[in-house]
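Readers of this paper often ask what the protein records in our data store actually look like. Such a record has a labelled line for the sequence and another for the backbone structure tokens. The tokens are whole numbers drawn from a learned vocabulary of local backbone shapes. We quote a single record here, exactly as it is kept in our systems:
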Amino acid sequence: MKKNFKILLIAVLLVTAPLLMLAQAPPHPNGGSAPTAGNGPVGGGAPIDSGIMILIGLAGLYGGKKVFDMRKSLEG
């Protein structure tokens, strides 16, 4: 009975905690106005091309190692 009560108490706490901690809405990007010369687009046009190339390269190396390990285990 004690174990069931503890589980029920934890479940109730996890369900009600988000309801009790309400936060205000985040501010609108650019203060609610359209992007202008001094008020650029949200995110600032951050470059992601080099990060994608690194990610693809690392994924290829990982896949190559998996194939190499698989072939090595089949030979021996």
